[in-house]
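Issue: ligand-bound run for magnesium ion - logging full I/O for the record.

Environment: standard queue, default settings, no custom constraints.

Inputs:
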Amino acid sequence: MFQTTTELRSAFLAYFGNNGHQVVDSSSLVPHNDPTLLFTNAGMNQFKEAFLGLENRGYSRATTSQRCVRAGGKHNDLDNVGYTARHHTFFEMLGNFSFGDYFKEEAISYAWNFLTQTLKLPTEKLCVTIYDTDDEAFEIWNKKIGVAAENIIRIGDNKGAPYASDNFWQMGDTGPCGPCSEIFYDHGEHIWGGRPGTPEEDGDRFIEIWNIVFMQYNRQADGEMKPLPKPSVDTGMGIERIAAIMQGVHSNYEIDIFQALIKKAAEIIGVEDLENKSLRVIADHIRSCSFLIADGVMPSNEGRGYVLRRIIRRAVRHGNKLGATDTFFFKLLPTLIEVMGDAGKSLVEAKAIIEKSLKAEEEQFARTLERGLGILDAALNELDTNVLDGETAFKLYDTYGFPVDLTADVCRERDITVDEAGFEAAMAEQRSRAQAAGNFGTDYNTGLKIEGETEFCGYTELNGEGSVSAIYVGGESVETLAAGQ
Ligand code: ATP
Ligand code: MG
Ligand code: MG
Ligand code: MG
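Outputs:
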């Protein structure tokens, strides 16, 4: 039986390896040479050029377990963490890829056979979705695989927005894309939620486990869909979601990896209730933060580094909420290294720098956190609406280092939203005041941009105190993140 996350990773790679796929290492979380992308968000990213026919990799089938971060950009799950059973900022995506080799029929058969024969999942627990107009996929599922018609759900475009469908996958606003077919697992009627395509689909009863994308187009900046040189396949299955099923639990946070991290965090901070939501958030965030640093991102006030800083600060705030009296975050790293097995190699190599930078960041933020939280609490107590004004959110950002999404995270626990437009306006005002004063002020705008072509050149010792930094060779800024992403 393949049960532990480590066993599942090996089983997946072996299955596709035995079916003629080249087993390829995960690429970095910092996309190489792709200014359109904030972080690697899917297994296909490293193969983008191969799909476009611009690169010949010497093989036409590949399989990977790809580390991914979805905490900004087109795919952003930061706000889901702590609220759903299935979303993380960092996760591993198991995938198989065909570059102009096999297409729909084989892709569907491989996935189905892996789930129902190798992993022996009961077929009655599974249902699938297809893109509305994809009759070919319907026929394959129905006739070749034998899935009953009522368990094949057609999902169309959202009103008036062509290709804006859960069953039309795109990595970003441009690039390879195509219709897809997804496999869902029913965790049982005791859990709230409905089948895909129903109003209750956002519940966590039917959980999407595997997305099979039929890569057919290269989306241009003006929206034009150019056919790819050869139809290809890209699939992705979150390892934590399939591990939850194999381990007989509902939430990803109940699987081996997360339980180890949650227990360790509870022990360090001194919490008894292992179900506490903040422990889940911390267990999630230590993964994204550690892997991002291992891949060369450092906390900073701009670009990728600012996204990292925001995640660290969120984790520190949740630790504070649990009553942490000392630094705790970096102390989770040894446990993380232990549970990640082979997938944690990059952490082992960068252990010292990860610990050092997480600790420094936590200590720095801890100095203003308490006061900021006090001010926020007072403001929330005085509120007679359920919207916090942008001025206060800006003051917390400006004076206490509260990224606006952190303020929103605190507010959300009390069913309050932040006036983000007001926040933006306060920030713009501050910027123009600074400009009027001769540009001596801080350019707050830089905090919200990501670098352009970013190339990681390695770590450099900066000074005798051992503070270490990553060097980037950056192009111009290409993407502005909306505040609160
Ligand atoms: P969802 O609808 O649940 O948000 P998705 O449709 O955004 O998932 P895809 O872009 O299709 O996900 O990615 C392929 C697979 O990766 C998903 O089927 C799922 O198993 C996994 N996955 C996606 N996002 C996450 C996440 N934030 N955390 C963990 N696993 C994820
Ligand atoms: Mg999603
Ligand atoms: Mg989905
Ligand atoms: Mg999907």
